[in-house]
Specification:
Blueprint (H helix, E strand, L loop, with lengths): L5 H13 L1 H4 L3 H14 L3 H14 L13 H16 L1
């Protein structure tokens, strides 16, 4: 995704999801990267949905998957979360 090759990223994410038990990524990590992909293809509703799951499942350090990533993802999530909480 960092190379903006989103077609390749989608294939990678699909394979990662299929083989998650073998490569030992956490479900939250797969969900986080699905959120990144959806954000980058401008499917913002799905990105927020994926990240909301990640935050809920992450326990005390609920923003840990955003660490070391582009800050725009966490900024977007927090803005959407404020809007969601107002409803």
């Amino acid at each position: 995704m960092s190379n903006q090759n989103l077609e390749s990223a989608k294939k990678w994410l699909d394979r990662l999801t299929d083989f998650n038990k073998t490569v030992h990524f956490s479900d939250e990590e797969v969900c986080f990267y699905n959120g990144v992909y959806n954000y980058e293809i401008e499917n913002f509703e799905e990105a927020y949905k994926q990240w909301r799951k990640v935050v809920k499942q992450s326990g005390k350090n609920h923003f840990r998957y955003f660490e070391g990533e582009d800050k725009k993802y966490l900024v977007f999530y927090k803005q959407q979360n404020k809007l969601y909480d107002r409803k």
